[in-house]
Amino acid sequence: MHGKIDARQVARFSGPAGDLKHPAARELYIKTHQTIQKVTSDIDESFHFNTAIAAIMELVNAVYTIDLDTADSETKAVVLAAMESMVLVLSPITPHFCEELFQKMGGQGSVLEQPWPEYRKDSLETDETLVVVQVNGKLRSKFSVAAGTSEEAIKEMALADEKIARHIQNQPVKRSFWSTKNRFWSTLWCDMIRLRQPAVRFLAGVVVLMLTVTACGYRLEGRGLVHPGVSRVGVTVFANRTAQTHAGIDFTNELIREIQDRTDTRVVDPDEAAYLIEGAVTSITFSTLSRSSTENVTERRVRAMVDVQLLSPDKTVIWSVSQFTAVESYAVGSNRIDDTANIRQAIEIIAERIAERIVSQMSADF
Length: 366
Description:
Layout: H1 23-46, H2 49-64, H3 73-90, H4 95-104, E1 128-135, E2 138-146, H5 151-160, H6 162-168, E3 173-179, E4 184-189, H7 197-215, E5 232-235, E6 239-240, H8 247-262, E7 266-268, E8 275-291, E9 297-311, E10 317-331, H9 336-364
Parallel strand pairs: 1-4, 5-7, 5-8, 6-8
Antiparallel strand pairs: 1-2, 3-4, 8-9, 9-10
C-alpha cells in the first residue's frame, strides 16, 4: 500500500458491497466482512486465535494491494473501514498495540470500549467462483468464472483450457458432469489407445512375468478397494476451518487423486455415489524455524491437521480418523507474492502426504 490516508477527512463506507463501483474496492470490502465473520467465529466459538490472526494477515495483504496515491474517495473509504475493522478484531489478542493504533487513527476513548464490528451477510460473497476441473478423476486445471455462469459456458471454457486440451489430446469426451455442490467439472473419455507393436510385446512380457511369479507361490500386491464393497465413492469438498482460502479444495483434490492412482475404487460425483468421504481441514499453523543475522525470519514450518470419515449409504459412519497431521518447511519469500506462493506450495505438499496416509490407513483398517 502506497500513500497516506487522513481518517478525519474520509467518510467510512458501511453499505452493501453491491453499491461499490470499483472492483478493487468491492473485493477489499468483501474480504473485510469475510474476515470479521471468520475472526468472530474463531474467537467467540472455538478460541482458535491462531487462525484468527492468520485471517487478519490475509486482510492486511489485501489492503497492501491498494495504491492510495491513485485511489479515489470510495476506495479510500473502504480501506479505512478495513483498517478500523482490523484494529477492533485484533484488540482482544493484542490490546496494548491496538490501543495505540486506535488512538493514532483518531479513535475516541479506549479500543476495548468500542462495539464489536458486525459483518454484513450481503457482503460476504464475491462476484466470482473457483472452478476445479478434473480429467479422469485427476485435477488438471483451475479457473475463476463469474457467479451464475451456466454449465455449458463453463464446459466450453474448460475444453478451451490449454492444460485440459493437453490431457484430452483430441480424444472424444465420453462423459462429463458438473457438480454445483462441489464446484467442479469432470470429464472422462475412452482410455483405449492403440499401442505400437513394441509396447504390445512389452506388456505381454509383463503378463508372463506376473503369471510365473504367481505360479511359484509369490503374490504381487493388488490395488484393491478403499473399503470392501466400495467400488464407487464420492468425495465432498473438505470443510475449511482455516484462513488459507484454498485449503479445502487442495486437500480434496489430493485425496481424489490418491484414490484414483492407488486403488480400484472409482471416484464419482457425490450426488451419484452411495458411499461418501467427508473431511475437514481443522488447523493450519505456522512456526519460525530460523532467522537471519538481522533477526528476519528466513524459514518457517507449516503444520496441518485433517479429520476424515467414510459414510455408508444410510449415512452411518463406518470409518473415521481425526487429526491426520503433517508438517512441511518453506523459505520465507523476499516479498509477499513469493511468500504466498511458497506457503501454497508447502500446503499442497502436506495435502499430498495426508492423502497418502488416509488411503493407506483406510485400506489397512479393512
